[in-house]
């Protein structure tokens, strides 16, 4: 299926768009007719941009997790200090993010979700090169932004405490 731009209909401004697997480079269009690939350099820049966009998504996904962990550590320190000073031994305290903290969490999530949605729309063009770039970006993003680090409390080992904790998130999907 060809889509023609609004510049006279002479075919010079036509975009190659397919809902079937394709390897289009020159004259491919993505998301809008103004994203019309007219040269190999433009296509290379598109591929690099797609890789970079997916790496950014992984960065914001990690940023969201790190911000949540930061808030929990901050709450834990404050709660420990406050309730230790009062001499209280057994208390249940609940953390609820402040309005500003929740706004920051929501903004990070919106950027991550929006970027992922754009990547999904790009993938729907079924362009093999773009899809490969999405996979490369996902791999690079994971490698750069989500280096595995697990803290294991060895304080209880050997004293009959079997509660050594590793990764507590069983599924990394959509998280």
Automatic annotation (TrEMBL):
Membrane topology: Multi-pass membrane protein
Transmembrane segments: 40-60
GO molecular function, one term: copper ion transmembrane transporter activity
Name recorded for this polypeptide: Copper transport protein
Pfam families, sorted: Ctr (PF04145)
Organism: Purpureocillium lavendulum
Keyword Transmembrane helix recorded: yes
Primary gene name: SLC31A1
Record keyword Chloroplast present: no
GO CC annotations on file: membrane
Domain of life: Eukaryota
Protein family (similarity comment): Belongs to the copper transporter (Ctr) (TC 1.A.56) family. SLC31A subfamily.
Subcellular location: Membrane
Keyword annotations from UniProtKB, A to Z: Copper, Copper transport, Ion transport, Membrane, Transmembrane, Transmembrane helix, Transport
